[in-house]
Each structure stands twice: as structure tokens, then as C-alpha cells.
Design brief:
The complex is a heterodimer of chains A (about 190) and B (about 350). Chain A is of the alpha+beta class and about 190 residues long. Chain A has six helices and five strands. In chain A, about 25% of the residues lie in helices and about 15% in strands. Helices cover about 65% and strands about 0% of the residues of chain B. Classes of the chains: A alpha+beta (about 190), B mainly alpha (about 350).
Chain lengths: ~190, ~350
């Protein structure tokens, strides 16, 4: 018999194990032991929430100084750093002070955000922050297209302790589009 | 005329009671299965509706009742509507011959009634086998009438599987029938009275332990349960034969599956594990002088056995992966069938020799 040659003969023990469903019984013992030593790893989510790690990266927010003014200087570095093109900044001069700039409009399309935190790293004045909010499920995804007021509101409720406004800021950051009087002119 | 009316009323009351109990059991099973499965997998199961999720079956029933009932385009409307009924009715109709408790007769308004069996017909087990075969039509027609590839594949698989395994169920119980000498489930149960060593799994002269194993495995396959759930293999066929069903029609298939589980458990308990007989001779309540309440003990034992089987169904589902189709067929025809046939030969010889010796 050529076709039966490939079939290995079972040893007596293997044969006994086969006819008594030994392997299946081992598996059933395992499931039963889980039933008896019932210790669920389930977290009843809306009722109980897990503790987040310290460096948790949640919803993005725009921050203010302690006197209520916006930190953002409209430098556009966040949108440059963003890998998913979430951020759109429209920069403008502060009306009364022509040497200072701010973001006239600031939009974040959170449907695209992947929460990498590179915008927060890129910001030279720490105007962006990552909150610990994550429950941002909405019925209409247009609600995830956030404007400046919404982002500032998120920052207000997530960061109650605000940074003190610095009197002196780095000139490269605080002053855009102006010649620096203390820097010598280039000889040319 | 009044006697006929009274008989009809009593029978209908009995039927309503049994149907009610079966439906309640099915409702409970849907919850119990999810809970037991969850516990075995270190989960909690349903927890939201009611305390510890105990009202989940009611929520499910309400949800299914109010869901839209869709008939897919191109489906055969008549058969599509017919199939769930064809699946559910045979599953429920089998309970007519199951003895739930001791074979007593009580007088109600001058009519003698057997309270624990609706109808003690003398071909009880044959009747159950016949009707469960009709249940297969519900599944096959449901799969065919849906006008869907997945449904059709599920229906075809179900046809092949049920034909293969019903044969084994039929042959596995022949040993019991030889020993009991009757097809009536009441008589079979009564023949096993007087302790667990009289149950047909262990009974002298031919213990039906192999037939019992074959019967249990084949009945798992016949009710389309894991590990033999090829007709509704959700990882291969979406949902198998009821892919296109929704709302109450889906609920009918669902009820049919669970009712079939209960029915098969009842038959296994009655045929092999002594039905309502306690594993010791007599009854404890009888010894305590409460002979008139001894039926409660019988019913309790029957319930325990049936729920033991149902737990086994859940346990297998939590443990085993699905068989491949060729493994299923090979197992049915090359392993189960020879064992069942061999069991018949051995049992027949043993019983014959035993009777000659006596």
C-alpha cells in the first residue's frame, strides 16, 4: 500500500490520548479554571476610567498668559512642524503695536491629527499644550474642525494655572519683520 | 362535548406552560451563554442593562422586535418568510413528548391528566428525530431563499452536516432502545429508576458510554454549535444561513437554535442520564414522608441534568475552535459512525446473552 506508507503509526499512548479526547480535556480544564478563578480585566469604561500616564498626549489646546492675553505670536512654526497638516494659521500684526504679531485666525482640523505633539515641541513661546482630554467622539466630524476660540476654551479649562507673561522675550520671537537696533548691520 | 372541551383546555394549558418554560429557559440561556463565555474569557459579559446585566435578554428581545424586517431584493419571499417558522416550530414541537417529571396521573375536574408530559406517545424518540430533521429544512431553505452567496453556502453546509450527524444521533440511541425495549421516552426514563448505576450510560449489561459520547458530539453538531458551527461560521460566511435575516425573523432562527439546544439536552438527559430519576434509589422527600411532593425532586434532578448539558455546550464553545469542513465530514463518517454501529452490535449481543442467561 503506497498511499498508507506516509501515515505514521500512533504509539499506544498517543492512540489512548486520541480516543479519550485528552487534548480537548486539557483545553476544557483551562477554560474551567478561568471560570473558577474569575478575575475580569474589564474596565467598565463610562463608569470607571483608567488612570492616564503622566505624559499622556490628548486634545490640543491654545494657552494664555496669566493676564489673559494669548501666547500665540502667529509664527506658523506649528503648522510647519505638523506632519498631517492639521494646523492653519493666519498671522497678523497686533493692531496697536506694529512690532508685534499674533494669530488672527487659527484652525485645527482634528480629524487628521495624530497626536504626535510635534507642534507643541515646535512652538517657541509654549502657546500650544496637550491636554488630557480624550473623549472627543462627535456625531458630525465638522465639529472636530476647531477655531481659535474653541482651542483657547479647551486650554482655559485644562490648564487653570497660567504662565506669567515674560517681560523680555527673545527678540527673534517677539519681534517679527523689524530691524534689530542692537544687532550690528551686516557689512556690505 | 364538555369533556372534550375540558380535555382541550387542559392540554392547551399544559402546552402553554411548557412553551412558557421553554421560552423563559431560552431567554435565560442567551444571557447565561454570554455571561459564562465572558467569565471563561476573563470578561464580564453584559453588565449595563439592569444589575449585573440580568435584564439584557429583555433588551435584546425589544430591540429585535422593533428592528426593520428586511427582505432582500431577489429573495424568494414565500420561502424566505417560511424558513424561520420551519426552523422554530420543529424545535418547539419536540417538547411534547419529553417527560419533565415522574409519570403520575392527577385528576382535574374528573379528567386524568399526566402533568409532566404533554403527550406520552409510544414512538416519542422517533417523533423527535423526525421533527428535528424538518428543522434542517428551515436552515437550508433560509439559506437558499436569501439570494446571497454566504447564505447559500451556510445552508449547503448545514444540509451536509445535519444529514451526516443525524445518522449518528439515530444510531447512538439504538443501543438505549435495545436495552429499554421501547421508543417512549417515559418508558425509557422509568426503566432507569433506582440509582445512577441503572442509568443507561452505566447500566448493566451494556454500558452506553460510547453511544453517549457519540450522541453528545453529534447533537452539538446537529444544533450547529461551536465547534461544529460551520453553517453560521462568522469568520468565513458572515453569519451563514441567516446573513440576510433581520428583526423578528432573525430572532426566530436564534430562538430555534437555543430551543434545539434545550431539546437535545432534554433528550440526552432522558435517554442516557435517567431523566428525572435521582442518582440514588428513591427520593429524599419520599423518605421524609412527603411522598406527595416527591415529584419536585424528580423535576429538580431533570433540570439539573439539562442545565449540566447546556453548560457543556457553553464550555465547548469557550474552548474549541471550529473544525475544518473535511475534518467535520471525516469525523462524522469515519469515526462516529463506526463507533455507533459497533455499539449497536455489542449492545445487541450483550442484551441477548444476558436474557438467555436469566
Amino acid at each position: 500500500m503506497a498511499h498508507t506508507a506516509a501515515i505514521r503509526r500512533l504509539s499506544l499512548l498517543e492512540w489512548f490520548k486520541t480516543i479519550t479526547f485528552y487534548e480537548i480535556l486539557v483545553g476544557m480544564k483551562a477554560t474551567l479554571s478561568h471560570l473558577i478563578h474569575y478575575k475580569p480585566i474589564t474596565l467598565q469604561y463610562p463608569h470607571e476610567k483608567r488612570t492616564l500616564p503622566d505624559n499622556y498626549r490628548g486634545m490640543l489646546a491654545l494657552l494664555r498668559y496669566d493676564d489673559g492675553t494669548e501666547k500665540c505670536v502667529g509664527c506658523d512654526l506649528c503648522s510647519a512642524a505638523c506632519p498631517s497638516r492639521v494646523i492653519r494659521v493666519v498671522s497678523a500684526e497686533v493692531p496697536a503695536e506694529p512690532t508685534k504679531r499674533y494669530s488672527k485666525e487659527y484652525y485645527m482640523d482634528m480629524t487628521r491629527c495624530l497626536f504626535c505633539g510635534m507642534c507643541v515641541d515646535a512652538c517657541p513661546v509654549d502657546a500650544l499644550g496637550m491636554t488630557r482630554e480624550f473623549e472627543w467622539a462627535v456625531y458630525d466630524k465638522r465639529q472636530l474642525h476647531l477655531n481659535k476660540e474653541q482651542l483657547l476654551a479647551i486650554g482655559d479649562r485644562s490648564f487653570p494655572v497660567r504662565e506669567k507673561r515674560l517681560e523680555l522675550q527673545h527678540p527673534n520671537v517677539a519681534f517679527f519683520n523689524v530691524t534689530f537696533k542692537h544687532v550690528p548691520r551686516k557689512p556690505n | 362535548m364538555t369533556e372534550l372541551g375540558l380535555r382541550l383546555a387542559v392540554s392547551l394549558a399544559q402546552i402553554a406552560a411548557v412553551m412558557g418554560i421553554v421560552m423563559l429557559t431560552v431567554l435565560f440561556l442567551t444571557l447565561a451563554e454570554r455571561k459564562v463565555l465572558g467569565w471563561m474569557q476573563d470578561r464580564m459579559g453584559p453588565m449595563e442593562v439592569g444589575p449585573y446585566g440580568i435584564l439584557q435578554p429583555i433588551a435584546d428581545a425589544i430591540k429585535l422586535f422593533f428592528k426593520e424586517d428586511i427582505i432582500p431584493a431577489g429573495a424568494n419571499k414565500f420561502l424566505f418568510s417560511m424558513a424561520p417558522i420551519l426552523a422554530l416550530v420543529p424545535a418547539l414541537i419536540g417538547f411534547a413528548v419529553i417527560p419533565f417529571g415522574p409519570d403520575q396521573t392527577i385528576k382535574v375536574f374528573g379528567i386524568s391528566v399526566k402533568p409532566f408530559v404533554i403527550s406520552d406517545i409510544n414512538i416519542g424518540i422517533l417523533y423527535i428525530l423526525a421533527f428535528t430533521s424538518i428543522g434542517a429544512y428551515g436552515i437550508i431553505l433560509g439559506g437558499w431563499a436569501s439570494n446571497s452567496k454566504y447564505s447559500l453556502l451556510g445552508g449547503l453546509r448545514s444540509a451536509a452536516q445535519i444529514i451526516s450527524y443525524e445518522l449518528n444521533v439515530g444510531l447512538a440511541i439504538v443501543g438505549v432502545l435495545i436495552m429499554a425495549g421501547s421508543l417512549s421516552l417515559v418508558k425509557i426514563t422509568e426503566a432507569q429508576a433506582g440509582g445512577f448505576w441503572h442509568w443507561y450510560v452505566f447500566a448493566f449489561p451494556a454500558p452506553q458510554i460510547f453511544a453517549f459520547v457519540v450522541f453528545v458530539i453529534s447533537s452539538v453538531a446537529e444544533t450547529n454549535r461551536v465547534p461544529f458551527d460551520l453553517p453560521e461560521a462568522e469568520s468565513e460566511l458572515v453569519a451563514g444561513f441567516f446573513t440576510e435575516y433581520s428583526g423578528m425573523r432573525f430572532a426566530f432562527f436564534f430562538l430555534a437554535e437555543y430551543a434545539n439546544m434545550v431539546l437535545v439536552s432534554c433528550v440526552a438527559a432522558a435517554m442516557f442520564l435517567g431523566g428525572w430519576n435521582a442518582p440514588y434509589p428513591g427520593t429524599i422527600l419520599g423518605l421524609l414522608g412527603l411522598e406527595s411532593f416527591a415529584w419536585a425532586e424528580g423535576v429538580a434532578w431533570f433540570t439539573v441534568k439539562v442545565y449540566g448539558f447546556l453548560f457543556l455546550f457553553f464550555w465547548l464553545r469557550a474552548t474549541l475552535p471550529r473544525l475544518r469542513y473535511d475534518q467535520l465530514m471525516k469525523f462524522g463518517w469515519k469515526v462516529m459512525l463506526p463507533i455507533a454501529l459497533g455499539n449497536i452490535v455489542v449492545t445487541a449481543l450483550a442484551v441477548f446473552i444476558y436474557q438467555q442467561m436469566k
